[in-house]
Amino acid sequence: MSFQRVSRTAAVAATAVLALSACGGGSGSADLDPDADISEQKLVVGIWADYYPEDLAETFEAETGVPVQIVHHATNEEIMAKLTAGGDSGIDVAFVSGQYAQALNEGGMLQELDHSLIPNIENLYPEAMEMAYDDGNTFSLPYAWGTTGLCYRSDLLPAEPTSWTDLLEPAAGVAGKTTMLSTERWMALPALKALGYSVNSENPDELAAVKEQLTTTKPTLLSFDDTTFYSKLVTGEAVLTEAWDGWCNYGIAEDPNIKFTVPEEGSDLWVDTMTVLKSSQNKEAAMAFLNYVLEPEIHSWAAENILYKVPNQAAMEALDPELLVTYPNLAMTPAELAKQEVIVDLGDYSTEYTRLATEISAK
Amino acid sequence: MPALRSAASGAAWRRRLAGLPILGPGVLFLFVLAVLPVALVTVYAFFERGRFGGVEYNFTLDNFVRLADPLYLGVVLKSILIAGAATGIALLIGYPAALFISRLPKRWRTLALIAVLLPFWTNFLIRTYAWILLLNNAGWINQGLQALGITTEPVAMLYTEPAVVVGLVYMYLPLMILPLYASLSSQDAQLTEAATNLGSSPFRVFRTVTLPLSAPGALTGCIFVFVPAMGNFIIPELIGGGKTVLIGNLIRDQFLKARDWPFGAALALVMTAFLVLLLVLQQRASRAVSEGKTPRKADA
């Protein structure tokens, strides 16, 4: 059985190599033709499952005549593997987080966006045009954005948490009832911020200090948890968790005593973006697709249904005000978000974060 | 003579080839799903990490040097200990269960075997979540203990290493029971009868006849449990709360989180080699036992 598991991991690699050998030819990076008849084109869009309106492909085709095939990925790493395995992935539009878009662009894989073909860009908040990973949105457009903070049971905590230290060095009654995110960059984030460092730190001394802090924190944790922390809050197993804002909302939906706050030391700003691949033969249709997603009625879907903030002013203003009362973090302003530090890709240094996370989890 | 020999070997070849249509699909299956992936893993292990995942084709032995890091050795050691503990407990629970089932009347035996296999009909993630519901601080067991006044505070059971062992035992127990049952039920009943007729106590019959004869089954069961337990990464994550890292987690993370395929491949390769070694040892031991080569104190 374990062989099977090993093989499956390797099968991923096998697919990659097959793809590599199948397509040796260079992909012509034809320039955009604004007059191209996009109804002659068709799109393959790589996106996270349950991250878009179910009828997106149908409505876009009805609008533009461009048939869309949607392929799902569960994680950034999965789509990165598809895109970078070599040759033409067949994907025209890829949804990836900002730091991954940055890495893809540095690898020369992304098409520069023609803003004249995407008039709906004007729906975006001005702040959403100034992201550190892609200032001016030259190769990516933000789809959803948010931050990381503390998600907690206000009825079960002695005091409202205000600092990352409340999580890292929990009070007596709180210890054993806290969780932290297990993905490396976010596992390091609370300690980095509490110690006054950048979330993108590449300083070994700073990481050593983070390691020391997390080593003392780990015994106080209920668990490391990326995916079910909010249900632990609902059951009361956990009372204080490190959480992505949107995910905290899933807890709030079940128990209004659950609240979200960004600690005073600050946090990160994460962005999920839309990108067009340079290898795409359907770039004009891809631009039209990006433009379509930025329509307020389409873009607001993400805020209404997955409870993530979208960087689209027109879409956010069209939201039911009730929603902002129930989920206060949806009402966080772009200015507040922009105060947080944008997570960027660290290239080779990211292995240091992986090692740190392994060291902490294995302790 | 040469003509004769070639005719003979030609016939032999024809005989061998005759099996091809039957063997073909199986061989192809093995090649695509076992040989090819392992070959790929082997190749990847000798190259550098690509920034976006995948590999850079620059030869390096770094990935194997990193394996010697105490951090990763510690993970390997812990995996062996935890998988070993799960295997030991599964044997302790599985042996009496298999013995009991093998002594049941035939009708009940089938029913009992179905019961052993029944959990496999449910998705194992769902079964894992059931354990979370049972073991968590607000879970049924803690609620029960508190309702009965045995404890006043919830006992932390979930998200601990023992919980990981429990989860692994639960997951793989049927794989222990089935080979044990097969070897126990195929034993010649006349052997135990003979021993009894010659005056052996039931315990002595068990110790000198039943137990040694079932040793190959027990060994197979141990391998069936140990091997997948070693590579499991879901249970440490869900039941262990991400606070325990086993080699399965480490490998998974290299591919799916760290974008470090070559190191993941090196880890996978080492684990595969270790497990192949175990399988070889198990076969040797089984053969030795079944051929009666091991000195046994039958005369004691």
UniProtKB/TrEMBL annotation, chain B:
Residues 76-282 form the ABC transmembrane type-1 domain. It is found in: Cell membrane. It is a multi-pass membrane protein. Keywords: Cell membrane, Membrane, Transmembrane, Transmembrane helix, Transport. The keyword Cell membrane applies. Signal peptide: none annotated. Its main location: membrane. It holds the Pfam family BPD_transp_1. The chain crosses the membrane at residues 20-47, 71-98, 110-132, 163-184, 205-227, 261-281. Belongs to the binding-protein-dependent transport system permease family. CysTW subfamily. This is ABC transporter permease. It comes from Arthrobacter koreensis.
